[in-house]
Amino acid sequence: MRLFVAVELPKEIKDTLYEFQKDLKPFVKANFIHKKNLHLTLKFFGEIKDEMVKEIQERLSKVRFSKFNLSLDEIGFFPNEKFINIIWIGLEPGNKIIKLQTLVDEETLGYGKQESKFKAHLTLARVKSIKDKKGLINIVREKKLKGNLLVESFHLMKSELSKDGPKYSVLKTYSPEQ
């Protein structure tokens, strides 16, 4: 079973990001993340044996956090502007989501790979080829997206791959301490 830990995004943020993805299409050929699949990944486990899922769920239930707000921030490229593989948008304040990601990582050591350098971001597109690099860089530099989200839970998610793209489902939701 393919598993990951994620924070869901509110509809308003998904709508904003989806509209921006449309703006990118003239400049790049890419696999754009479907609107329904936009999320913030905290940890990707990959393939996990069914009998280990309960242990991961128990470990994640030990993560203690408080609600916090995030805002959309700069738009950028991985690994960089010269060699564009991924188009992403950052989240601020990054330290709050990094703290939550670190807690998730620490509680699930030994499952999946540990993040060496987590960057608070949402993946918008995986680039196949670039039609107009100068235009792409200009639109990314000029565009300022606005949006806020309240992080009040995270989820253990299951990912099923198909020819129509991944299908995500929530296995368990984790909320902050009361």
Class by SSE composition: alpha+beta
The end-to-end span amounts to 31 Å
Tell me which oligomeric state these chains represent: single chain
Count of separate DSSP helical elements: 4
- Report mean pLDDT, rounded to a whole number: 93
CATH architecture name? Alpha-Beta Complex
Name of the level-1 CATH class: Alpha Beta
Low-confidence stretches: none
Proportion of residues in β-strands: 35-45%
- What radius of gyration results from the CA coordinates? 17 Å
Element-level helix/strand string: EHEEHEEHEHEEE
Keyword list:
single chain; 178 residues; alpha+beta; Cyclic Phosphodiesterase, Chain: A; five-stranded antiparallel sheet; four-stranded antiparallel sheet; 4 helices
Describe the overall structure:
By secondary structure, the chain is of the alpha+beta class. The protein has one domain: Cyclic Phosphodiesterase, Chain: A (Alpha-Beta Complex). It is built from four helices and nine strands. A five-stranded antiparallel beta sheet has the order 2-6-5-4-7, with helices on both faces. Strand 4 and strand 5 form a beta hairpin. The two termini are 31 Å apart. The model has no long low-confidence stretch (mean pLDDT 93).
Briefly say what this structure is:
With 178 residues, this protein is α+β, with helices and mostly antiparallel strands.
Helix-strand blueprint:
Blueprint: E1 2-8, H1 11-24, E2 28-32, E3 39-47, H2 53-60, E4 68-79, E5 84-92, H3 94-107, E6 121-130, H4 133-142, E7 148-151, E8 154-160, E9 167-174
